[in-house]
Amino acid sequence: MSETLLSGLGPVIGPATRLVVLGSFPSVASLAAQQYYAHPRNHFWPIVGALLGVDLPALPYAERIEAVRERGLGIWDVYAQCRREGSLDAAIEDAQLNDLAGLRLRLPRLEAFAHNGGESARAMRLTASLGVAVHRLPSTSPANASWSFERKLAAWRAVFAQHGLA
């Protein structure tokens, strides 16, 4: 176990946010870059870009963030802090939750939370108590190799379409 307590990234939200995708905790690459889903093999940006009709992977990070905000998508993580060696969710220890209830109060147009992967989905009982729809999505992580890109895209499309984002 890591002796260092790691801190995650702040929420990506805006006044139009209708759907918030919740990961578990940023990868080593994401923490180093201070950017969500910075690992080059993570499917998050290609999937979200395909659904929103924007070539997000080709854009600088600040423009990606602006594009998702404008379209009503938020991004955050379930955990605010944890100890972890490497990037695998299975290595997360001493996790402290983000203030998801407080986030809900800040987003009057919020319709749903979508958990990106199994570790994030462990907080579904909490998000389900916040008065919005809750979805479990297949992880976009390269560690989720049992799901093809196309299969992940189809699952994500169903949720995005339900909330007017695809």
Percent of residues in beta strands? 15-25%
Architecture in CATH? 3-Layer(aba) Sandwich
Q: Between the first and last Cα atoms, what is the distance in angstroms?
A: 40 Å
Mean pLDDT, as a whole number? 96
Question: Could you characterize what this model shows?
Answer:
This protein is of the alpha/beta class. The chain has one domain (6-162): Uracil-DNA Glycosylase, subunit E, CATH 3.40.470. The protein is 33% helix and 19% strand. A 4-stranded parallel beta sheet has the order 3-2-6-7. The chain has a 3-stranded antiparallel beta sheet with strand order 1-4-5, with no helix packed on it. Helix 2 (44-52) packs across helix 7 (149-162).
Short summary of the structure?
By secondary structure, the chain is α/β, with parallel strands linked by helices. It has helices spanning 28-33, 44-52, 61-70, 100-106, 118-121, 124-128, 149-162; strands spanning 6-7, 19-23, 73-77, 79-83, 93-97, 112-116, 133-137. It contains 7 helices and 7 strands; from the N terminus they run ββαααβββαβααβα.
